[in-house]
């Protein structure tokens, strides 16, 4: 049984036989590809159905059942317990309670209440054109109507367009009904207001039952997680902290690093490089940018001590990047950093590190772009920049002033 009251059959056997669609694993389109395969979803008496004609609420239940069954893969959630902070790692869909759907028990006044698509819902103030909107209307959407949103999920970056606004079902923001104006307003909305809208979109298009209640093994607290864990409606597109996906604590982070390193060391055919997760103040590059990772080659130092090569990962930089940009993908960035440092290692062994030269060059170029070619030349001419490090040390207060000016200009 589905939230709309529709009775359908989902064939586990047919779903397992369905060919893997050529889209990102775990995405909505992946689930759709399987749901549309022959014999997977049928009416109660075995007739084929138009899956794209289903409401999003119904379709997401079918999608959740596929992730629950492991037919559509799901990235595990790695979070600290909300109560005691003990990290845990779990695939939320595996904890979904499927009983009420299978047993036709969708009659709870709260958990099975339909979303009110006609009523305007309260939201924090959002500037729309020249007016302030305090309400939003969200229409019901079918899979077919939501496809632009599902395709956007597969793209690398997300942006509000009229097509996305329509696919989300947003029909009115305050008094505004034009999708193009609403798209513009959403892309400028303060993060708290957008999160309130995202919560409403989730409520409109996902059954309140699509939740995993994970019990902490340490303190017993209940941690509610979205099912499926990955959703096509971005929760946080502006700055600010993600409520649903806080930054992993140091233990969870270390495990992510170790797991990634095992994989990447094997793939790149390296070993015997020490791996350190550093939660102290991160080292910075020559441009003053805190490092995600660093590589120190091995060898014998001045006093004759033999050192092994080392890759160091700076926890606090990842934390900071994640706070600056909530779409910062911690797991992917860890992988990329380790891989990057291994490249330095291999270059070092080969006797030449073009990557290092490139990076220093980029830092110099960047500061020149900010300072200006002529001013840079003047300073170099005056001998202020006798070497590049000295040059940057002289430059940084000026860079800071330039940065603050840019920032103030931006805020105005
Ligand atoms: Zn706990
Ligand atoms: Zn590098």
Describe the structure.
- The chain is α+β, with helices and mostly antiparallel strands.
- It has a domain at about 250-410: Collagenase (Catalytic Domain) (3-Layer(aba) Sandwich).
- The chain has 14 helices and 14 strands.
- It has helices at about 10-15, 30-35, 55-70, 100, 145-155, 160-170, 180-190, 190-205, 250-270, 315-325, 330-350, 355-370, 375-380, 390-410, and strands at about 10, 40-45, 75-80, 85-90, 120-130, 130-140, 170-175, 210-215, 220-225, 275-280, 295, 300, 305, 310-315.
- The strands form six sheets. The protein has a three-stranded antiparallel β-sheet with strand order 5-6-7.
- Strand 8 and strand 9 (about 220-225) form a beta hairpin.
- It is globular, with a radius of gyration of 26 Å.
- The N and C termini lie far apart (about 55 Å).
- About 25% of the residues are buried.
- Residues about 240-245, about 385-390 and about 395-410 have low confidence and may be disordered.
- One zinc ion binds near residues 86 and 216.
Quick recap of the structure?
43% of the residues lie in helices and 15% in strands. It is of the alpha+beta class.
- What sort of overall outline do the alpha carbons produce when their principal axes are compared? globular
List how many beta strands DSSP finds: 14
Biggest sheet details:
3 strands, antiparallel
- Poorly predicted spans: 238-244, 386-391, 396-412
Spell out which ligands are present.
zinc ion
The CATH architecture of the domain at 250-411 comes to 3-Layer(aba) Sandwich
Tell me the radius of gyration: 26 Å
Strand % is 15-25%
Number of helices: 14
**Secondary structure: helix percent:** 40-55%
Strand order of the largest sheet: 5-6-7
CATH fold type of the domain at 250-411: Collagenase (Catalytic Domain)
Topology pattern, helix = H, strand = E: EHHEHEEHEEHHEHHEEHEEEEEHHHHH
Mean pLDDT: 86
Distance between termini?
53 Å
Instruction: Give the helix/strand class.
Output: alpha+beta
Text of the CATH class of the domain at 250-411 = Alpha Beta
């Amino acid at each position: 049984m589905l939230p709309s009251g529709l009775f359908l059959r989902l064939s586990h056997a047919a779903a397992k036989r369905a060919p893997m669609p050529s889209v990102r694993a775990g995405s909505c389109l992946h689930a759709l590809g399987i749901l549309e395969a022959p014999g997977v979803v049928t009416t109660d008496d075995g007739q084929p159905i138009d899956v794209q004609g289903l409401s999003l609420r119904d379709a997401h239940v079918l999608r959740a059942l596929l992730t629950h069954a492991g037919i559509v893969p799901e990235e595990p959630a790695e979070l600290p317990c909300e109560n005691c902070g003990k990290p845990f790692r779990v695939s939320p869909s595996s904890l979904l309670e499927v009983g009420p759907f299978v047993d036709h028990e969708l009659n709870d006044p709260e958990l099975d209440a339909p979303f009110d698509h006609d009523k305007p819902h309260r939201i924090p103030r959002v500037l729309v054109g020249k007016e302030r909107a305090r309400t939003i209307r969200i229409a019901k959407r079918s899979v077919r109507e939501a496809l632009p949103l599902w395709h956007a999920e597969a793209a690398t970056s997300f942006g509000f367009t009229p097509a996305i606004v329509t696919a989300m079902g947003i029909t009115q923001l305050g008094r505004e009904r034009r999708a193009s104006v609403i798209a513009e307003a959403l892309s400028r909305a303060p993060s708290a207001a957008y999160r309130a809208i995202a919560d409403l979109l989730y409520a409109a298009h996902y059954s309140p039952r699509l939740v995993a209640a994970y019990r902490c093994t340490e303190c017993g607290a209940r941690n509610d997680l979205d099912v499926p864990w990955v959703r096509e409606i971005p929760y946080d597109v502006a700055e600010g902290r993600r409520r649903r996906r806080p930054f992993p604590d140091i233990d969870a982070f270390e495990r992510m690093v170790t797991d990634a390193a095992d994989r990447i060391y094997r793939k790149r055919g390296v070993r015997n490089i020490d791996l350190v997760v550093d939660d102290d103040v991160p080292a910075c590059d020559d441009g003053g940018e805190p490092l995600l990772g660093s590589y120190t080659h091995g060898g014998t130092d001045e006093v004759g001590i033999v050192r092994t090569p080392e890759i160091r990962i700076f926890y606090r930089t990842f934390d900071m990047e994640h706070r600056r940009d909530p779409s910062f993908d911690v797991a992917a960035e860890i992988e990329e950093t380790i891989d990057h440092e291994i490249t330095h290692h291999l270059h070092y062994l080969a006797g030449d590190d073009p990557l290092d030269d490139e990076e220093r060059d980029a830092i110099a170029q960047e500061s020149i772009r900010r300072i200006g070619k002529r001013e840079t030349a003047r300073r170099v001419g005056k001998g202020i920049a006798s070497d590049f490090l000295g040059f940057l040390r002289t430059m940084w207060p000026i860079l800071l002033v330039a940065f603050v000016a840019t920032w103030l200009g931006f805020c105005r």
